[in-house]
Amino acid sequence: MVQKKLKKMEKLIGHKVNCAVFISGNGTNLCSILKSSRKKDFPIKVKLVISNKASANGLKYARLNNIPYKIFSSLNMKIFEKKTIKELKKNKIEFICLAGFLKILSKKFINNFKYRIINIHPSLLPKYKGLNTHFRVIKNKDKISGCTVHYVSSKLDSGKIILQKKVKVKNSDTSLSLQKRILKQEHKLYPRAIKTIFS
Fold it and tell me: Which of 90, 109, 153, 196 has the smallest number of CB atoms closer than 10 Å to its CB?
């Protein structure tokens, strides 16, 4: 049902769906989405980047690709969301990708974009919701980890799963080495998930 609504939206619009990407850090998943968006058959166009940190390294990808970006402090999330919604409306944003955005959006905000906000999480949900996923995987001596793209709901990392990718955990893995290997898979999985939604 969700996919049908989004596909219908794409057809009604008659062009690539305007997307905003939210970041807080390095923005490597933003970079991956931008690369895919250059392809003719990719369903979205990144029209806006939102960051809650002026120091976010990922903003360089917005600059390099001439994508407008806005930086809003998240110390007060009500103010952050109010400013963000104004900017989303201004840019006619129809779809949102969270890519390393480390803040929790309110239920009210999410309901404004129901089934049009997705996120990537560095674990095989529903396991290891929240932060420090790789540390917890290593600590619990799991043999398999991975990443998940899911719809955003009002409950943390609990929305409907779109796609997942498993990654084997090596005996020699540290949190950092596992993070690096899973991140490479995230870069492949996120664009695939976006295409899946609109297919």
Answer: 90
Residue-wise pLDDT tens digits, 6-21? 555 555 445 899 999 9
Residues annotated as catalytic (active site), given as ranges: 121
State the Cα–Cα distance between residues 131 and 72, nearest whole angstrom. Answer: 22
Q: Helix 2-13 crosses helix 175-198 at what angle (to 10 degrees)? A: 60
Q: What is the length of the chain?
A: 199
Q: What distance in Å separates the CA atoms of residue 169 and residue 178, rounded to the nearest whole number? A: 7
CATH class (in words) of the domain with range 2-198: alpha beta
Domain ranges of the chain: 2-198
Cα angle: 157, vertex 6, 92; to 5 degrees: 90
- Using CA atoms, how far residue 54 sits from 48, 109, 119, 165, in Å, is 15, 22, 21, 31
Full-model pTM: 0.92
- Flag whether pLDDT at 146 surpasses 70: yes
Distance CA 59, CA 166 (A): 29
pLDDT at 114: 82
Give the H or E element holding residue 118. Answer: strand 117-121
